Amino acid sequence: NAQCSTDPMVQKCSGKLSDFTFLKVYKIDKIKTGETVEFSYVFSGNTSYMISLCDDKGTDIGVEVSLFDSNRKLVSSNRLNGKVYPSITYNCKTTGIYYMTYSLADATCGVSVLGFKK
């Protein structure tokens, strides 16, 4: 894969966090269509999290994410009823490790920005 310039995407995605506090950036690159990459993060109970997605095409729907709890149970996704959304919000009830699995649907690279609010 060609180099992916993620800086503009990070700025754009961070700006979509609104009243959420920035936590972390995940670069989604060096994978082919149909492959996935996984990251983990410890989520705290009684906290809301937002995952904002941006792609290199400017559509922000070229990156798909699935969020799993510590038991690997799917708890959220930005794909719903065949439609892909540019962000998801998850209200975490239980503290633990959560897994975010990303794939590229219609992009060559992208970023995911994680934010939180109490």
Describe the structure.
This protein is mainly beta and 118 residues long. The chain is 8% helix and 53% strand. It contains 1 helix and 10 strands, in the order αββββββββββ. It has one helix at residues 7-15; strands at residues 21-28, 36-43, 47-55, 63-68, 74-77, 79-80, 83-84, 87-92, 96-104, 110-117. The strands form 3 sheets. A 4-stranded antiparallel sheet has the order 1-10-3-8. Strands 2-9-4-5 form a 4-stranded antiparallel sheet, with no helix packed on it. It has a two-stranded antiparallel sheet with strand order 6-7. A hairpin with a 5-residue loop joins strand 4 and strand 5. The longest helix is centred in the first third of the chain and has 9 residues, at 7-15. The radius of gyration is 13 Å and the shape is globular.
Mass-distribution shape: globular
> Count of helices?
1
Percent of residues in helical segments?
under 10%
Name the beta content range. over 45%
User: Biggest sheet: strands side by side, in what order?
Assistant: 1-10-3-8
The computed structural class is: mainly beta
- Uncertain stretches of 5 or more adjacent residues: none
- What's the main sheet like? 4 strands, antiparallel
Strand tally: 10
What Rg, in angstroms, do the CA atoms define?
Answer: 13 Å
* Terminal CA distance: 39 Å
The secondary-structure element order is HEEEEEEEEEE
